[in-house]
Design a protein that fits this description.
The chain is of the alpha/beta class. Helices cover 43% and strands 20% of the residues. The chain is built from 16 helices and 19 strands. Helix 8 runs antiparallel to helix 10 (267-291) and helix 15 packs parallel to helix 16. The protein is globular. The chain starts with a strand and ends with a strand.
Length: 504
């Protein structure tokens, strides 16, 4: 089995720019992770690999059956049922590994999001494909479902490609990472790094810093050579003025003789020679610069100073209810500047608690300090946020655009009078706006959903370094993210129809 991209180039019709130019990649047995920022071409790359998109030039060579699992699972189709209920021992083992019963399959439309993703993977693996491509397979999944999927995917012995920003998931399966980057241009560059995703990202940053240092070193050397040449040129001109007989008295034979003697020493020629040597070296270095790519080092995080007022928060002991489920919450006191991770299985009540906490703060009159970002924003909330941005003066808008750029987005996304923003960009806009409004309490449900890996790592550093004065309660299944930017963990534990919030 094999999958090869040979000299592939591709551009979207009417775009006027080349997305991929003469790329060649080979995939063999085992898993390869594809990562990069939104818009870097990850989905296009796997669509080309799967044969859903035909490249403008080059060719894709593959052998065996290929299955592509999209981000959104719309349900079992066609002959999925025959593969799943074939009675094959391998399929039976997959059902057990993924914790999927026949009864769950028969009521597929009532399954939870995590159960549906596991069913999607079962349908894919049941076909025993030689090539398997997964596009963001762990979005919205808790640790339990993710671990089941990892166990099942470890049984796959074909060629696998995963588009993912989930570092724990990717690292459990793969030690090869492709990092796609469009940089400041339109054409994608691809780094093929034989390391798991977290280490590959660090290696990519190290290479970028090293490349930037090398570029600046050559630039500095070229400037130095040019300055030396300029000084030598000026000294040569000064010497030529000193050796000129213009203005001398025609009868001043002694002065003329001295000038003639000085000319014979050849010092002016040596100056000109040295100047030409330095100019030559400067031009050589400039030619070298022209052949080098200048790695851009984006300033990251929020540009606002710290020192905002952050109130102490509290929540009384209470029992929250959602249908027949009850969640016991103890009395809570939160010190200003606390960064708290809230963990637990899907359906345990994390979101229930976060909403109740927000409502309590509003009742206490502390709503002006609070920014609550749910997993999915309502249309009216999105419209209000964009309207608030558009109502700002030019200076304030410039500050917001600067913060958006420092969080990994391009200012062009907000350049029109009716901007259309992705869910990830909306999160960044809300955070940037709230900081300028003096909001210092952040309640965020699944902050890494809809964020690419670049923006995710920027947000980690921003929460850890720029937002030390903020109080944050973050609900997330992303253990790496929580570990990077929180210092306290609360867990929501559920047994049957009752649960409790535990502060560790």
């Amino acid at each position: 089995m094999f999958l090869q991209l040979e000299g592939v180039s591709f551009s979207y019709p009417g775009s006027g720019c080349v997305l991929f130019s003469d790329i060649s990649l080979s995939f063999h047995e085992g898993w390869t992770v594809v990562a990069g920022s939104n818009g870097a071409g990850k989905s296009t790359l796997i669509s080309i690999a799967a044969g859903l998109i035909v490249p403008d030039s080059g060719r894709v060579r593959r052998s065996g059956e290929i299955v592509l699992c999209h981000q959104v699972f719309s349900g079992l189709e066609g002959d999925d049922w025959s593969y799943i209920f074939s009675g094959d021992n391998h399929v039976g083992m997959l059902k057990s590994t993924l914790s999927i019963s026949d009864g769950m399959i028969e009521r597929e439309h009532t399954l939870s999001g995590g159960e549906k993703k596991r069913l999607q993977l079962l349908a894919a693996l049941a076909r025993s494909p030689e090539l398997l491509i997964l596009d963001e397979p762990t979005n919205h999944l808790d640790a339990y479902s993710r671990d089941l999927m990892i166990a099942a995917l470890r049984t796959f012995d074909g060629i696998g490609i995963i588009v993912s920003h989930d570092r724990a998931f990717a690292s459990a399966l793969s030690s090869r990472t492709l990092i796609l980057d469009r940089g400041s241009g339109e054409t994608v560059s691809i780094e093929d790094i034989p390391l798991p995703l977290p280490q590959a990202l660090e290696e990519s940053e190290r290479r970028r810093r090293q490349g930037r240092a090398a570029y600046e070193g050559v630039l500095s050397a070229a400037s130095s050579e040019q300055r030396i040449a300029d000084r030598l040129r000026e000294r040569s001109r000064s010497r030529q003025r000193d050796l000129s007989k213009r203005g001398l008295d025609r009868k001043d034979h002694d002065a003329k003789a001295k000038i003639d003697g000085a000319r014979l020493t050849g010092k002016d020629a040596s100056l000109d020679g040295a100047m030409r040597n330095h100019l030559s070296r400067s031009r050589q270095l400039e030619d070298r610069l022209a052949s080098m790519d200048m790695p851009l080092m984006r300033k990251e995080g929020l540009s606002l100073p710290s020192g905002m007022r952050t109130p102490e928060l509290s929540f009384p002991e209470t029992t929250l209810r959602a249908g027949s489920y009850t969640l016991l919450v103890p009395s809570i006191s939160v010190k200003p500047g606390s960064h708290i991770a809230i963990t637990g299985r899907n359906g345990s009540g994390k979101t229930l608690f976060l909403r109740a906490f927000q409502e309590h703060l509003l009742q206490q009159g502390k709503g002006r300090y609070v920014l609550h970002l749910p997993q999915e924003s309502l249309e009216e909330e999105v419209a209000a946020l964009i309207s608030s941005f558009l109502a700002l003066d030019d200076e304030a808008k410039g500050g917001i655009l600067s913060d958006m750029y420092r969080m990994g987005s391009e200012p062009s996304s907000l350049s029109s009078n009716s901007p259309s923003l992705s869910p990830g960009e909306l999160k960044k806009l809300a955070i940037a706006m709230s900081r300028r409004e003096g909001r210092s309490v952040l309640l965020m449900d699944e902050p890494t959903n809809h964020l690419d890996i670049v923006s995710m790592r920027i947000m980690e550093r921003m929460f850890r370094e720029d937002c030390r004065d903020m109080t944050m309660l973050l609900v997330s299944h992303d253990e790496a993210f929580l570990s990077a930017c929180t210092d306290e963990v609360w867990s929501v534990e559920r047994e049957g129809e009752s649960g409790r919030l535990v502060m560790h």
